Amino acid sequence: MELCEKSKINELLKNIREEKGLTREELANKINCTRQAVYKIEKNITQPNYRLLCRWFRICGWHFVASKIEEQVFDIPMTKTPRKKSDQEEMSQ
Predict the structure, then answer these.
(1) pTM score above 0.70
(2) Within its chain, how far is the Cα of 67 from the centroid?
(3) pLDDT digit string (tens) for 22-32?
């Protein structure tokens, strides 16, 4: 488990989006936000709320459990988990 500081979460989110091969606009459509919101999060201008963070990770095929969310730190296990077929079908709807 690796601890991600608030100032580093943006880099992680950008990397997993790019790893999935999604543009900012494609990701924004999938997680129900704007392309500009994705840009601001990746540039560390704003921070994602918990629900947006969960959707971002899920869409990109990552699983995390935030056992402790504070102002400055997210506790995020850095493991990629295989997706179940039912999860993929749910996201495509």
Answers:
(1) no
(2) 16
(3) 999 999 999 99
Assigned token pair, 75: 């506790």
In whole angstroms, what is the distance from residue 45 CA to residue 47 CA?
7
More confident position, 46 or 76:
46
Can you give the residue range of the structural domain that contains 8?
A: 2-87
CATH code assigned at 34: 1.10.260.40
Separation between Cα atoms, residue 77 and residue 34, nearest integer Å: 27
In a domain, 63, yes or no: yes
Q: Which amino acid is at 90?
A: E
Pairwise CA distance, residues 24 & 33, whole Å: 10
